[in-house]
# Entry
Amino acid sequence: MDWKEYKIPNGLKLIYKKFKEFHSVAIGVFIKTGSRYENPKFAGISHFIEHLLFKGTKKRSCNEIKETIEGVGGTFNGFTSTEGTCYWIKILDKYIELSFDVLSDMIKNPLLKEDDINKERNVIIEEINMYRDIPAKYVHELFDNLIFEDHPLGVPISGTPETLTKIQRNDLIDYIKSKYTGENIVVSVAGNFEEKKLKEIFDKFFGDIERKEENQFEKWEGKIDGPKIKLMIKETEQTHISFGGFTYSFEDEKRYPLSILNIILGGNMSSRLFNKIREELGLAYEIRSFVRQYQDTGIYNISAGVSPENLEKALLEIIKVIKGMKEKGVKKDEVERSKNFLISQFLMGLEDNLEYMIWIGEQKLLKKKMENINEIVKKIEKVKRNQVEEVANEIFKKENSYLAVISSKGKEEKLKDIISEI
# Structure
């Protein structure tokens, strides 16, 4: 097995992998809560809390938290996603107990001072405004809202200025008390450590966290109801496109042929979209495709930046590439190259113990059944050409077509006609 597991009576889980050749250890505290677990009234509260937990505890000021870790050469940070929140430290192995002390202190004893709350609220609102001024990023927010509508999956992780303004100190305290509980926390560790000592410090710093029910979220039960368009007219030098539709959850076995399809379509510089749109036609500097998967659904997405004059032409060519995959299928050598690329990127990514720690931590937090490295590699290797083609025919459909565009000009009806040809 790639890793080992340990669980204590309050439901809190430890997952760990020893790399005895390393000098460092990476520790992450994962909480099963993110933007899709939130009351729409308080959208962004998970991300807000993640920011605030670095601002001080009953034991340490904001500066003391930073100096404690960085003063011995460690690095630390946090992130909030749709389905989880993580606080992590990477540090020399001799400071592992110190890291557990700091991370547990942050999640158990945050000060949440009114002054910090108000300042950080403003910081996040400015962060939101900054991203809204970057069309290449904001277009994806428009796409999510178009495809998921009012469901929490369609709301930005950071929330909105309107929802953040409503969040008060008591709301933050109540949210932490209800969500940061034993059954909803996974501690992930990868690097050099002594196993017996690791379990002892885990018990010491996390054994007193209260156990409650597992956090629940609103499941996605929406219908595929495209084609749909959202066009924002804005004075920009470049037009930004975000096009896609629904795919499979990360529990679905079809995610493997989907990953191969994504690489062939636009996942690297050898892809069909890159070769056609950038290399052959010179319509875009950047064009790519990617897949985002959740516990109960997923999306595929194609994004590009083109001149306003080339919007319709670029979109027509993108649709032609997709139709070509449906009508003529994919080539055997494309599938093999994409499998090699996917496996190599996966394995090379896990050579960093921080990335390995995050990989096993997120799996343990969210998946019903974890998969080890060999299982994943074998499943990728077993993907057949016809499976990739079946996935293409399942997801590339008129009714599963959604397009968000930020441009200085454009006509919705014309764009809708183009994507309807898929």
About this structure: The chain has two domains: 4-206, 228-419. DSSP finds 16 helices and eleven strands in the chain. Residues 99 and 362 are 19 Å apart (CA to CA). The mean pLDDT is 97.
